């Protein structure tokens, strides 16, 4: 349990990296429009992170991952590799940002809409956001970690969204991925109890169709088998003495040009 709880100096460093990750995610939003490639989005983020923030994009070269961010378009569930695909009106794209600064990490993602989309898809995105934030509201010391997955699963099923079970949230700190694993499904009042100083991500991946998925030959890109759309949102959370703090909450916009 001791290894799961961060000291204050570690928390301060994680907070900084989370702030930078949120700033980057906020910065890139204005560039998400038709006729821009996901690789261009990657390059903009890379330049912003390295030149402006003086930080490192943690995904780059992580276990061989070739880019600085993940861009998961439409039926891509997670780990989409930026490429020469041109976004078009009606697409959805999840941008996943992880920053490493002073040896510590901050992780966040959001699914963006490319101009106009069908109301059903827009509603599903709103429901995915609500699923995460309604779950975050239950967080406090001494509740069981299984409650997180239980509340996500319960909310998602009510909204007729399927849960991708193969991928989960995770502890974060000096390492990109640490314990504990944060499942997005589960049983209430099971698992370890949350304690002040724990820092982890919650990042439900919810599909409009079936939950079944497969990994492409690049060994990274995970897609829905039935080609249905997949939506994700992610925040890094700190458990405090009374409840919680969202460390990757939206930051003030920064003016940035390519």
Task: Please tell me about this protein's structure.
With 258 residues, the chain is an alpha+beta fold. 26% of the residues lie in helices and 24% in strands. It contains 4 helices and 15 strands. It has helices at residues 8-28, 38-52, 119-136, 146-158; strands spanning 56-57, 70-73, 76-78, 92-101, 104-113, 162-163, 169-171, 178-182, 199-202, 205-207, 213-215, 222-224, 230-232, 235-239, 244-246. The radius of gyration is 17 Å and the shape is globular.
Tags for this model:
258 residues, three-stranded antiparallel sheet, 4 helices
Lay out the secondary structure.
Layout lengths: L7 H21 L9 H15 L3 E2 L12 E4 L2 E3 L13 E10 L2 E10 L5 H18 L9 H13 L3 E2 L5 E3 L6 E5 L16 E4 L2 E3 L5 E3 L6 E3 L5 E3 L2 E5 L4 E3 L12
Antiparallel strand pairs: 1-4, 2-4, 3-12, 4-5, 6-10, 7-8, 9-14, 10-13, 11-12, 14-15
Helix pairs in contact: 1-2, 3-4
């Amino acid at each position: 349990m001791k290894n799961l709880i961060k000291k204050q100096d570690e928390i301060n460093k994680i907070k900084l990296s989370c702030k930078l990750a949120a700033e980057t995610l906020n910065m890139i939003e204005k560039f998400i429009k038709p006729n821009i490639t996901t690789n261009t989005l990657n390059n903009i983020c890379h330049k912003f992170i390295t030149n402006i923030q003086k930080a490192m994009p943690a995904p780059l070269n992580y276990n061989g991952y070739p880019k600085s961010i993940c861009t998961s378009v439409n039926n891509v569930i997670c780990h989409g590799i930026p490429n020469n695909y041109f976004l078009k009106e009606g697409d959805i794209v999840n941008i996943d940002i992880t920053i490493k600064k002073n040896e510590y990490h901050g992780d966040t993602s959001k699914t963006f809409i490319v101009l106009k989309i069908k109301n059903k898809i827009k509603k599903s995105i709103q429901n995915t956001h609500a699923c995460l934030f309604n779950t975050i509201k239950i967080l406090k010391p001494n509740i069981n970690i299984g409650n997180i997955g239980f509340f996500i699963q319960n909310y998602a099923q009510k909204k007729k969204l399927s849960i991708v079970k193969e991928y989960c949230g995770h502890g974060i700190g000096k390492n990109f991925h640490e314990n504990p694993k944060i499942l997005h499904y589960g049983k209430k009042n099971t698992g370890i109890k949350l304690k002040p100083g724990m820092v982890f991500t919650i990042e439900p991946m919810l599909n409009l169709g079936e939950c079944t998925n497969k990994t492409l030959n690049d060994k990274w890109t995970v897609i829905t088998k039935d080609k249905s759309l997949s939506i994700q949102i992610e925040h890094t959370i700190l458990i405090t003495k009374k409840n919680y703090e969202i460390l990757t909450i939206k930051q003030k916009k920064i003016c940035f040009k390519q």
